[in-house]
Amino acid sequence: MEVRRETEELEPDELVPVKFHGEMRPSPKGLTATLLPFQVEGQSWMYAQETKKEIKGGILADEMGMGKTLQTIAVICDNRSKLQHCKPGAKSPPEATFQDREAANMEEKLWADALKEWKHEMEMQNVPKKVQPRAGPQRGGTLVICPVIALTQWKTEIEKFCAENALTVGTYHGPNRVSDMPTAMLSKYDVVLTTYQVVEADFRKLVSPNKVSCPNCGQKFKIDKLRVHLKYFCGEYAEKTEAQARQRRSAARPGQRRNDHDDDHSFSESSSENQDDDIHHNKTGKPGLRSPAPLSSGHQLP
Ligand SMILES: [Zn+2]
């Protein structure tokens, strides 16, 4: 009832965009692109959301090609962390102005709040001490989480719209990401690009690190995944659904992996990220999982 009343009372005119009335931001240092007036408005609104509000954040939604990425890059340049590379409580340099000190104190408080949140989150998720980062949480730059196909685009746009080395960019992605990009390195970049799948997989690893072995093939699984594995994939009575069989056939199709483009990246990503998802299991040579026999499409779920 409540919901219906709310939707009925919604006037289409209320959805017409309102102008942002806050302070308009100047073009930030490091940005070489010139923003259109509505993009300056977007940048200024996002800056205000990040700095002036009790509740931070917001959603910038617009049609394709309107420069949402550019506006976001502008905000990243505009609201850079001043204390990213400082130890907690580090003193301001003697030449710092009163405003500099004020800003530093404000940011110090934000980092302290973030640290508190982090500790609380680790506790709430029951993350064992031994899988938590050894050096504790690190201060870092801006984390951009995007679809795999947008990784390159983000990097290109930052290079295109900013002065050389105005923003350092690191990409955290791929099966060797942890060895290629250790935490100490990640925290140094101004911008770190990553994907939804990586964040999801890393988070899952953190919150449920314990796996059990399959009694048939010895492969390690999370307990809930093992149930699926045994039912549909492993052992004498395993059955595959039509969709699973199809997905495996397409995964096994040659040529797909030879595609030297982003798509390939995305493909190998999904196969490595979903190591627990048997559907994408194409890295293991374990018997029972990689049966070369043609998959019957007659098998259906009951
Ligand atoms: Zn098995």
Keyphrases for this structure?
mainly alpha; disordered C terminus; two-stranded antiparallel sheet; 11 helices; 5 strands; 41% helix; 3 domains; 302 residues; binds zinc ion; three-stranded parallel sheet
In short:
With 302 residues, the chain is mainly α.
Task: Describe the 3D structure.
This protein has 302 residues and is mainly α. The protein has three domains: 2-78, no CATH class; 126-207, no CATH class; 212-280, no CATH class. The protein contains eleven helices and five strands, in the order ααααβαβααβαββααα. It has helices at residues 2-8, 37-51, 68-78, 98-124, 151-161, 177-180, 183-186, 196-207, 223-232, 242-252, 262-273, and strands at 142-146, 169-171, 191-195, 212-213, 220-221. It has a three-stranded parallel sheet with strand order 1-3-2. β4 and β5 form a beta hairpin. α2 crosses α3 (68-78). The two termini are 38 Å apart. Bound molecules: zinc ion. Zinc ion (ZN) binds at residues 214, 216-217, 219, 229, 234, 288.
Question: What topology emerges from the helices and strands here?
Answer:
Layout: H1 2-8, H2 37-51, H3 68-78, H4 98-124, E1 142-146, H5 151-161, E2 169-171, H6 177-180, H7 183-186, E3 191-195, H8 196-207, E4 212-213, E5 220-221, H9 223-232, H10 242-252, H11 262-273
Parallel strand pairs: 1-3, 2-3
Antiparallel strand pairs: 4-5
The protein binds zinc ion.
Report mean pLDDT, rounded to a whole number.
79
Bound molecules: zinc ion
Number of helices: 11
N/C terminus separation: 38 Å
Provide the spatial order of strands within the biggest beta sheet.
1-3-2
| Order of SSEs | HHHHEHEHHEHEEHHH
Largest sheet report? 3 strands, parallel
Outline the low-pLDDT stretches.
255-302
Strand tally = 5
Portion of residues within helices: 40-55%
Radius of gyration based on Cα positions: 24 Å
Q: How much of the residues is beta strand, in percent?
A: 5-15%
Shape: globular
Query: Helix/strand/pairing class, anyone?
Result: mainly alpha
